[in-house]
Amino acid sequence: MKPLMRIFNKLSFLFPTRKKKQFTLKNKGKKKDHDLAVDYRDISEREADFQKTPLVVNLEDNLRTITDLTGGSYDLNIKRCLAGPKEVNVAVVFFDGMVNKESIDDLLRIVNLETFKTVIEGVHKKEIYDTVKKRLITTKLREADDMENLYEGISLGDTALLFDGTAKGILCETRGWDYRAIMEPEAETTIRGPREGFIENLRVNTSLIRRRIRSPNLWIESINIGSLTKTEVAYAYIKGLAGEELLEEVRSRLEHIDIDGVLESGLIEEFIRDAPYSLFPTTFRTERPDIVSAALLEGRVAILTNGTPFVVIVPGDFLMFLQAPDDYNELFPIGSLIRTLRIFSFLLSIFLPGLYVAILNYHPELLPTTLILTIQATREGVPFPVVAEILIMELAFEILREAGLRLPRAIGPAISIVGALILGEAAIRAGIVSPGVVIIVAFTAIASFSTPTFSMAISARMIRFLIVILGGTFGLLGIQLGFLIMIIHLVSLRSFGYPYMAPYGPFIWSDMKDNIIRNLWWKLVKRPRLLGFREPQRQPSGQGPRLPTASKGPYRRNRKRR
Question: How far apart are CA 523 and CA 540, in angstroms?
Fold first, then answer.
């Protein structure tokens, strides 16, 4: 037995023992008053103890627990003072940088001065708490009876008042941290329209929506997601207009999220979206309050996340990713024209390189003889087939575009444009690619820039490579096959139960008036049938402009006076 133990001790380095167990055995039998301060506890154990820790009557025990809980963080401020004629010990607890300094000064003045003017009889420690809560503090407040609610309040910018002799705390709203100014989103610029955009503050974002929809039926509900970050996520909708089934589905998917932290709305989007493996986005995101307000008026739901300016709109459909505010802010003919050009450019950005490859390789008879001879002449000496040329140039352009996004804003666009020009010219002179390929790739890139939504534009860029491969393998038959597969996939998609290709699949004739061709505002009498079914009437009909007749109007009256 001893030789076996000796061998086991020599090989013990292969089986390391957790430090936690060694510490536990070493301290076995020793009672810890504040387990939150013990270093060996895992985060799950600390969270469990934190949720079970109530506030006690003794003020010093509560302050010691808060200090142990936060590790004595440098931004935690605890100010002690005396309240009332009996000089009850009071502590003001807050995080520096998250509160308004003037509000803190007002609270200290109330505790130090105003409480001494009150006449307190009986059990002074209990009555001073009630006096401060009911008579002296005029700001919004709430009570906390455990450490979880207390810390949640001060982490949101509230200030906690703890009184000796009372197992409760008062949370006063004193939020006052700095945030970015409201300005136009750089990725969603518009020629004619509001210049406001969402910021990283949730309260400011909800106020931007309420300025535009001043109705009591605009309801905003909130939920905290993330066991560690406890990020505030709100979803806004118009009560009585949005479908109840849609609202229940949104609530269910948000409540189903169980993760340690949420730092951006993209995480929420991945958890709640339909068809997570699809290249096409099924949820719409934006930074513009006017787009969110327009979506709410159609019966959709907007999901706002604290700490990010991007708002997620559900349900989403295919055509809303190709629409822009300028379509509706400009006059009817101009809005219809730019929308039609945008949809045509989106299709070109997907299929143009694949069509070029398919025609040159398999169907040269579709081009005029002079043109095909010119193209073939420019390809003399190029060592690669057309498919390889297209893929090389597309890949090089994608690298340049990604590099331009990561560079500083002052030089990023210049580097990407100049780099593309120099790279294309150098590739032609070196005989690596032909001039026709450079023209096709450049025109495709320009067409892709017309897509207003980044998520849909990058999906088109990924599908473009598949179309090029199909065109180089099967010719126009491969292009047709790719187009049919894409259409079948789009028609099969759903977004929170809403058909992704509506009103084309299923076909709804009444909703066709505002898709490819933008209709006149006074003709948009009905809301989308599947979204606004609870209140289909948007506005009364017959509100078009009325022109003066020959016998009436101001010009007729002026002629009579002459």
Answer: 9
- Assess contact for 23 and 45: CB atoms under 8 A: no
CB atoms < 10 A from the CB of 88, how many? 24
Token pair of 213 as six digits: 């929809």
Q: Which helix (H) or strand (E) holds 425?
A: helix 412-429
Nearest to 124 by CA among 83, 74, 75, 94: 83
Task: Provide the token pair at 268.
Answer: 């929420």
Q: H-type helices in 180-310, by residue range?
A: 202-212, 244-255, 265-272, 289-298
Pairwise CA distance, residues 271 & 258, whole Å:
10
Mean pLDDT score, 164-188:
88
| Whether 474 contacts 493, CB under 8 Å | no
Q: For the CA atoms of 63, 64, 67, 72, what is the dihedral angle to 10 degrees? A: 120
Is the peptide bond preceding residue 194 cis, with omega within 30 degrees of 0?
Answer: no
> What is the signed CA dihedral for 51, 53, 59, 60, rounded to 10 degrees?
-110
Mean pLDDT of 50-62: 87
Helix (H) or strand (E) holding 170: strand 169-172
Residue 301 parent element (H or E): strand 301-305
H helical segments located in 330-411:
332-362, 369-378, 386-406
Task: Give tens-digit pLDDT for 398-410.
Answer: 888 888 777 777 6
Q: Where are the domains of the chain?
A: 37-172, 202-316, 332-499
3 state SS of 185:
coil
The dihedrals phi and psi of 262, each to the nearest 5 degrees, come to -125, 115
Q: Cα(470)–Cα(441) distance, rounded to whole angstroms?
A: 17
Nearest partner of 503 among 239, 298, 242, judged by Cα: 298
- Does a cis peptide bond (omega within 30 degrees of 0) precede residue 536? no
Name residues whose C-beta falls within 8 Å of residue 363's C-beta, 6 or more positions apart in sequence: 475, 476
